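call fold(seq) -> tokens
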Amino acid sequence: MTVQPQTSDGPILLIVDDDHAIRTLLTESLERHGYRVETAANAQEMDMALARHAVSLMLLDIMMPGEDGISICRRVAQRGGPPIVFLSALGDEPDRILGLEIGATHYLTKPCSAREVLATVRAALRARDGAPEEPRQYRFLDWRVDFMARELIDGSGMLVDLTDGEFSVLRAFVRRPRRVLTRDALLEDARGPDSEAYDRAIDVQVSRLRRKLRARDDEIIRTIRNEGYFFVPSVTRA
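ret:
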């Protein structure tokens, strides 16, 4: 009797790892962001999960008892299974290259943060769905932002030095201009969804960003009392 995969309103992720603590940590983190998560401790449990569910993406360990992750990846890829993200303690370059060559879409080395896993899952799902790539450059007023190079360039072509936090806040504004962004939304973009940073950290980043944009008061970034911030200029793709 063939078991038909169940359907789901959103992506189903399958975590295959013999470490119970890692499975639990990843499950809790990913479920907080709206994903449905299934888990397996070995290849046999994985096969049963794939038979029961329409899995969108697998997070796969390499070093497991019984069939290892390399063998699993090969046979899943050969039969057209879901995309695979390796999550392994084997972090040497030959290990990473092998993992990608046999069919994995991404390779993360343990230990890695929950937000790095989340970002990788989102990227892998976008690639699976054929989502168009985000434009590399945007313009607002006389400024140009290059997401790939992580650069802010003024109207005269001069590069303005930004910290990682300042650039991440600017990127959030540029992606969603002319709408109110709460401090929580900016925190998630700037520091990751699992950050323990306080919302005052965003106020500091915004203040520094205003100075570097040479903006007076609310000229570019407007403070909306008790709500958050509003990026005033229109933004176009460069």
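The radius of gyration is 21 Å.
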